[in-house]
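Issue: ligand-bound run for zinc ion - logging full I/O for the record.

Environment: standard queue, default settings, no custom constraints.

Inputs:
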Amino acid sequence: MKNIAISFIILLLIFSCKENKENENPKFDLIITNAKIVDVQNNEIQNKKFIAIKNDTIRLVGDMKDFDDHKANEKLDANNKYVMPGLWDMHVHFRGGDSLRKENKDLLGLFLAFGITTVRDAGGDISTSVLNWKKQVGENSLAGPDIFSSGPKLDGENPAWEGSLPVSTSEEINHALDSLENMKVDYVKIYDGSLREETYYEILKQAEKRGLKTTSHVPLSANLQKAIDLGLDGVEHMYYIAKAGSPIADSLSKTDLGYGMMPYIFDTFDKDLAKQVYQKLASENVSVTPTLHIGKVLSNVADEDHSQDSLRNYIGKGIQETYKGRIESAKRAKASGSTMRERMKELAASMIVPMFENGVNILAGSDSGAFNSFVYSGESLHAELEALVEAGLTPAQALQTSIINGPKFFELEKFFGSLEKGKVADIIVLDENPLEYIKNTRSIDRVIKNHKIYTPGTLLKPLKD
Ligand SMILES: [Zn+2]
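Outputs:
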């Protein structure tokens, strides 16, 4: 017995020595040297750093002067380029039906090529594929951004979009949420195609009870403050925040004007009332995805010539076919004299700085995907960051809406948002400083995802005619 105990102690000592040795000089998968780390939170650059990565996690960050020739399977000399966390696009769509599954899958490489290492899919009609890709990216058997998906959207009895789950009774909501939970979606997306006010509130109540996160278009018959009280976690687009900033919002809710109520909202929008709304959004931790860039694109889609857009070389023909719908509706709107999109675009931009200053968790989202004409996957997130800067945020604040606020929505801030020990090693290397000029986020030299190093050129696959 005694001998066994002694052998056991010796074994333990051997193991602990071995472990110590490994800790002294562990073998990493990848070490990045000579990095200028972009600290988005503090709006500063940390010079001459090295970053050591094992699997998908940052294990060590230090000064180059302390660099001890750590062993790694691969080394990347950043050559004093700018190294920062990968971008999050918090509103994208994979959709367009069975025939477009392949074209949607091809978008994954496009996201990576533009430095987008995580996307939040806001609902579509090919959810089984999307959830499969999510799994494969997680297992590192597919190159692409990590995907958070809502699965199919919930809508009223006549859904606006293919693939949505129509609900009108409490039982139907219960059933729909069961099916979403079975699919293991990451959150619930609610759409306002034909959703009645009471049905909307009931969805929020049931989702809250189940601990599911919800983001939504807010039906124009409903009250945003009440939705927040019932547990809404995110608002998509600015219409509903603008409406809550109008003192006549409740009487407009009772009309059947639909989006025809927007001119009344623009005319009565009250900054002080809106400030109270921002404060409520902030205190109740409700995120807002402004989607400014798509607002700009769609506000002049009837007039602008997109035929020479270089990004069209990377978007499947089937997806490009779906762009026609928005062009037609924009032409009709123009013929009818509607200036709704232009006015919304201006009001939305003016609301960004006050929302930020009042502590709202603003999310950078592009709304890219089939049907959303000329809002190209990957590239459009950069355009959204630029629109946020144009609206008055600093480059660091705009980056925060993607890199820090994105993870915060999913309560994952512990693992993302900066390049520090213990964080996920989703990394982009930029030629130029993005804190100086937001367009420098486009100067992508390398993208690191699942400890693989990509150059944008190898990910961008132009279509063959
Ligand atoms: Zn959308």
